[in-house]
Amino acid sequence: MPGLIREITVCGGGNGAHALIGTLLARETVERVRLYLPLDEERARFAAAVGREFRIRTPEGERCSPTEKLKITGDPREAARSPLIVLVVPAFAHGPILSSLAPYLTESHVVVALPARSGLEFEMKRLGLPSALVGFQTLPWACRVAEYSRRVTVYGTKRWVGVACLPADRTGEAVQAFGPLLGVEIRPLGSMLALSLANPGQLIHPGIMYGAFGKKLDEVFPSEEAVPLFYLSVDGPTAELLSGMSEEVMRLKERVEELSGMGLSGVMPLEEWLRRSYGEAIEDASSLVQMFRTNRAYQGLRVPVVRTDGGYRIDLHTRYLTEDVPFGLAVTKGISQIFGVATPLMDEVLEGVGRWLGKRYLSQGMLAGQGLSETRAPQRFGIQASGQLLEVYGL
Ligand code: NAI
């Protein structure tokens, strides 16, 4: 894999893609960055910016790179000329982008998802892609576009990011190649299944939305300052819900390990993940409530809202629900169902937020119907039994 990083295709034109482009343009080892933008408007805006400088601002300072290495394309065949294809888009865009690239992807390509969220391995199998898959647990940066196609601000970089591969034996190569490329510590998670289950956003985001904001959906907040802080709204019952869902994931982990012999050490209780990820940024780690409330990285972030007459209302189309439920929680529910692990708390959240979104994910406690067809749960791809599921991971 280290040899592959001279030519890279970036798929996506949002915040994360800007941060990645800024990072890659500054690397001497990278000779060509192809930017694959199937959306016409984004492609036109980026094409107009080539030849100018691209700026990335981090807490350490601003870096400015020339853009000669950048080639903008909407042609999937051209995009597939790089051996390394990096998807930096929300999970709902993985399927459409991979479908367009599918005819041109070969065994020698490596597809990277930054981040992967859950269940991408099932989508790859459905498309019959022969390429290797590298999935990251999260985006290394908290970032926003400052000026489209020209400037990005990186507010913070994670201490480390988990990675998994399919096939799993390529993980070592991925750790070696992507650490220096992305400028962040990469830790192996063992397997793509561990990555799917160890997706912390699938618990934290829908769990807090359901637990802390379920009774506030009709409220109108008169000003931006009146919009509640997201993580500071975690109260005792919400923390209990999160902790309970995390225990359900841990029971599933044990069950899978018992049945398959697979090691899923990357899947850890939520409290431990918070401690390991944020370390000293958490002032008081005495309880889960305090871990959320005193985490410096979480300060100032408000619940997502939309403008409405007279102020702001909670946004039900937030990624916290539209990404973390179908490409997170529902996938873990599906895997739990296959291994016969009961998940009453996950079910409650899926049913609750499903009602808000006008979707029904469960019927008699099982994933089913229209709701299921919009998720990346294994059942959507016809995987119903543990043997079939483990086969995806080469077991
Ligand atoms: P974004 O909303 O800025 O990116 C959207 C981009 O995706 C669009 O600009 C477009 O280029 C592409 N896209 C969307 N639908 C498409 C389609 N059907 N076909 C082709 N391209 C399509 O999202 P952002 O912020 O870049 O996030 C990317 C991922 O990183 C998400 O999973 C997000 O949850 C995650 N993440 C982002 C963080 C951040 O600070 N931006 C922090 C942590 C995670």
Description:
There is one protein chain. By secondary structure, the protein is α/β, with parallel strands linked by helices. It folds into two domains: about 1-195, NAD(P)-binding Rossmann-like Domain (Rossmann fold, 3-Layer(aba) Sandwich); about 200-380, Orthogonal Bundle (N-(1-d-carboxylethyl)-l-norvaline Dehydrogenase, domain 2). It is built from 16 helices and 16 strands. The strands form four sheets. It has an eight-stranded mixed sheet, sandwiched between helices. The two termini are about 25 Å apart. About 45% of the residues are buried.
Shape: globular
Low-confidence stretches: none
- On the 0-100 scale, what is the average pLDDT? 95
- Gap between N and C termini: 23 Å
* Count of helical stretches: 16
Question: What layout of secondary structure does this protein have?
Answer:
Elements lengths: L6 E5 L3 H11 L6 E5 L3 H10 L3 E6 L2 E6 L3 E4 L2 H4 L4 E4 L6 H8 L8 E4 L6 H8 L4 E5 L4 E7 L3 E7 L2 E7 L4 H12 L2 E4 L3 H6 L3 H13 L22 H25 L9 H9 L9 H6 L11 E4 L2 E4 L4 H4 L2 H14 L5 H14 L4 E2 L2 E2 L1 H5 L12 H7 L3
Parallel strand pairs: 1-2, 1-6, 2-5, 3-10, 6-7, 7-8, 11-12
Antiparallel strand pairs: 3-4, 8-11, 9-10, 13-14, 15-16
Helix pairs in contact: 4-5, 8-9, 8-13, 8-14
Bound molecules: 1,4-dihydronicotinamide adenine dinucleotide.
